[in-house]
Structures are given as structure tokens and as C-alpha cells.
Specification:
alpha/beta, five-stranded parallel sheet, globular
Length: about 210
């Protein structure tokens, strides 16, 4: 039997956002607006001087720019906080039920893959505090052999490299909705990329690539 690993991104890959439009679901979702609102409060609480809303929005935009590998890097550096503390304030109080669509067909497909001895790994730029809420909402925590969140790394490339070295004799696949984050860095380490524009494409694309499921 072939030994196979499937790495899954989470947000926009394993679920869709409620009330979201466009291809890049996160940045076009009300969920993103709530995250930004919480970051606004985080900044306001730490600025020693009076700061305008316009200045705060400029800080947030700068943190999301390509100058930084990951958005939280800027806040951790600028305000001298642990990233876990930033994650708790930005994501910890968000109600997962307001934003995460539960797709039964995807959930069933993941459990089917696990039953056929695929090693499933979750790799997400979301923090642990949000990932745990999503996994509970979708009831899929048990399908994953390993789970990596933003608490564990700064760049997904670190984890692709780690898994490639630890599982040299496995067929390896990476499934995600962002080419630059989920596909290109994975292919650099020998993974086959599976780009999905929406969660409902996952089963068809994987079955097309792996014909014995």
C-alpha cells in the first residue's frame, strides 16, 4: 500500500466564510472585519499617545503588506508582546458560528481519507485559539495526524521542509486556496499541489489526482 500524506490549509479550504464574496474569502468577509476591529482595540490599548482612527488603519494596512512574512510579526515586534497574547486579543472572543459554514460532504470525505490510511495534516496561518474553534465547529480534529498553527511557525515553508525530511518515502500532497502560500512552497519540497478555489472542489480534485480513493 502506498504511504501518503495530505496537508490541508484550513480557512477558505476546509470551510467557506458566511457572508463573504470574491475569491479571497478572508479579506472579503465580515470575519476579517471583526479581526481588524479587535486589532484596532489592541493597538489603541498599547499606544501611549492619543492616536487617530486613520493612523490605526494605516498601521493595520502596513502590517498586512508584503514587507512582513506574516501579519502578526509586525505587532509582536512593535508592541513587544508574545504572539499568543496578540492572538488571544485578536481572535479569542470571536464566535465561530457566526462565520464558519459547516459542509457535511467535506467532513465525510476527510473521515473517508483517514479510514484509508492517509496521514492528514492541518497547516494553517490561523492561530491555535481560532483553529480549535473551527475544528470543534466542523468536528474534524480527530481526522488529523498532526496540526500546525501560527503558534508553531512563522512561515509555512518551515513545516513543508520538516515534513518532507521526516517522510521521504511518502507521496505528499498540499491542498489549499492560496497558490503563494499553499502550493508553490510545497512543490519546492516535492509535494504535489492541489489548488482549490472553494471547499466544494476538494473531493473531485483529490479523486482526480489519486484514483484509488
Amino acid at each position: 500500500m502506498n504511504k501518503r500524506i495530505l496537508i490541508f490549509d484550513m480557512d477558505g479550504t476546509l470551510y467557506s466564510y458566511k457572508h463573504s464574496k470574491g475569491v479571497n474569502q478572508f479579506y472579503n468577509s465580515y470575519y476579517h472585519l471583526e479581526v481588524k476591529s479587535n486589532i484596532h482595540k489592541f493597538i489603541l490599548a498599547r499606544e501611549k499617545r492619543k492616536i487617530s482612527r486613520r493612523k490605526i488603519l494605516k498601521i493595520i494596512k502596513h502590517a498586512e503588506s508584503k514587507e512582513y512574512q506574516v501579519y502578526f510579526e509586525y505587532y509582536v515586534s512593535k508592541y513587544g508582546v508574545k504572539k499568543e497574547d496578540f492572538f488571544h486579543e485578536a481572535f479569542g472572543q470571536i464566535d465561530v458560528n457566526k462565520y464558519v459554514k459547516r459542509e457535511e460532504s467535506i467532513i465525510n470525505f476527510l473521515y473517508n481519507l483517514k479510514s484509508k490510511d492517509f496521514k492528514l495534516i492541518l497547516l494553517t496561518y490561523s492561530p491555535l485559539v481560532w483553529a480549535e474553534k473551527v475544528l470543534d465547529r466542523l468536528n474534524i480534529k480527530d481526522v488529523f495526524y498532526e496540526i500546525y498553527t501560527a503558534n508553531d511557525f512563522n512561515n509555512k515553508e518551515e513545516i513543508f521542509k520538516k515534513i518532507a525530511l521526516e517522510h521521504k518515502d511518502f507521496e505528499k500532497y498540499s491542498v489549499g486556496d492560496e497558490v503563494g502560500k499553499d502550493i508553490i512552497p510545497a512543490e519546492h519540497y516535492g509535494f504535489k499541489g492541489v489548488y482549490v478555489k472553494s471547499p466544494n472542489q476538494i473531493e473531485l480534485l483529490i479523486k482526480t489526482l489519486i484514483n484509488d480513493i
